[in-house]
């Protein structure tokens, strides 16, 4: 800690005593000494007071809702997962749906002191950040469910775009990327991107995310869920791959949701040599590659991480991605950035959501204590 902060050992000891007195950190049980010959007073082992507060973390996407309860020490206490369908939020308003599940989590963990609710969402946030102007999740937009939840539980509720959480989570999961310039691309039910520039989250406003999936790839091309035509997502998201693989016309309305097993089946078909499935993933890779090539005209990452269900299809898209990116001037001069698939998309999103929320708890409740 002294090395990281530049503070003296005496200052850190004094601050630690203050935090102990305020019950923010607690003294842990003494462990056996590894070296009895060490000099000085024996070390005092300290850790977060896990019981001082908890946060509810919601991850929403087209196919599922995952609800997690984490304590102040960052420990996962409880988790519930539910499937989402295109009619879920038509049958029950989002605020009621989320509140019902939070109450269930509280009934299972009555000792939890809830201090924050944070929600990962897909789409475009409204100005006050309490709802969405548009979302691929049916019946979720144009409803201030964040504000309603905050009123129902009398605690702050924060909505985060998935792209920002991808960028944030990757920094925590891989210390080697903490200060790097990284583009993290989610490929699955949608296509999204989060970016860090030398370790700093960047993007539209302070959201740290872009609308990469809705970058135009082919003017007047395939119909996207957003209603526009030719978006990267219209070719690379699961519904775009499904549409191409079954030779459905590009102007056909996209499927509102693609069951995970359908997409996994397409990956298996392409991996076994099925031509139509292979062609679909080739087009997906080409759309992602050209999108990345355009992005690199304004942002030059050292690493590109592919996450989400599409990471399992990376071997089917990689050649087209690299081929499209090779036409970028920066790639020709600086070489291709490192492109790596990350097979568990849930972990960077969850980790980003967790760390942002715990930091908010720190700032709101404890940072101002004297």
TrEMBL record:
<protein>
    <recommendedName>
        <fullName>ROK family transcriptional regulator</fullName>
    </recommendedName>
</protein>
<dbReference type="InterPro" id="IPR000600">
    <property type="entry name" value="ROK"/>
</dbReference>
<dbReference type="InterPro" id="IPR043129">
    <property type="entry name" value="ATPase_NBD"/>
</dbReference>
<dbReference type="InterPro" id="IPR036388">
    <property type="entry name" value="WH-like_DNA-bd_sf"/>
</dbReference>
<dbReference type="Pfam" id="PF00480">
    <property type="entry name" value="ROK"/>
</dbReference>
């Amino acid at each position: 800690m002294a090395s990281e902060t530049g503070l003296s050992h005496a200052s850190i000891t004094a601050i630690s005593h203050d935090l102990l007195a305020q019950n923010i950190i607690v003294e842990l049980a003494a462990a056996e000494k590894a070296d009895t010959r060490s000099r000085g007073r024996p070390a005092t082992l300290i850790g977060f007071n896990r019981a001082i507060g908890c946060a509810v973390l919601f991850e929403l996407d087209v196919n599922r809702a995952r609800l997690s309860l984490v304590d102040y020490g960052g420990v996962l206490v409880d988790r519930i997962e539910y499937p989402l369908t295109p009619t879920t939020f038509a049958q029950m308003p989002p605020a009621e749906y989320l509140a019902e599940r939070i109450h269930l989590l509280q009934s299972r963990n009555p000792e939890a002191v809830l201090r924050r609710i944070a929600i990962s969402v897909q789409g475009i946030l409204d100005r006050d950040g309490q709802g969405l102007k548009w979302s691929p999740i049916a019946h979720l937009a144009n409803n201030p469910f964040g504000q309603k939840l905050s009123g129902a539980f009398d605690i702050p509720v924060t909505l985060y775009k998935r792209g920002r959480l991808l960028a944030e989570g990757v920094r925590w999961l891989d210390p080697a990327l903490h200060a790097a310039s990284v583009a993290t691309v989610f490929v699955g039910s949608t296509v999204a991107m989060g970016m860090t520039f030398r370790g700093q989250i960047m993007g539209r406003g302070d959201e740290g995310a872009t609308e990469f999936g809705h970058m135009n790839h082919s003017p007047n091309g395939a119909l996207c869920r957003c209603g526009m035509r030719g978006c990267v997502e219209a070719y690379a998201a699961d519904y775009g791959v499904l549409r191409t693989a079954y030779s459905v016309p590009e102007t056909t309305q996209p499927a509102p949701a693609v069951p995970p097993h359908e997409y996994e089946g397409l990956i298996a078909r392409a991996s076994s040599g099925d031509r139509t499935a292979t062609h679909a993933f080739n087009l997906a890779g080409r759309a992602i590659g050209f999108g990345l090539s355009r992005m690199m005209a304004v942002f030059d990452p050292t690493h590109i991480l592919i996450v989400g269900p599409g990471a399992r299809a990376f071997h089917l898209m990689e050649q087209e991605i690299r081929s499209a990116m090779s036409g970028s001037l920066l790639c020709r001069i600086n070489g291709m950035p490192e492109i790596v698939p990350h097979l568990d998309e849930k972990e960077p999103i969850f980790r980003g959501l967790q760390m942002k929320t715990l930091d908010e708890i720190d700032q709101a409740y404890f940072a101002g204590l004297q």
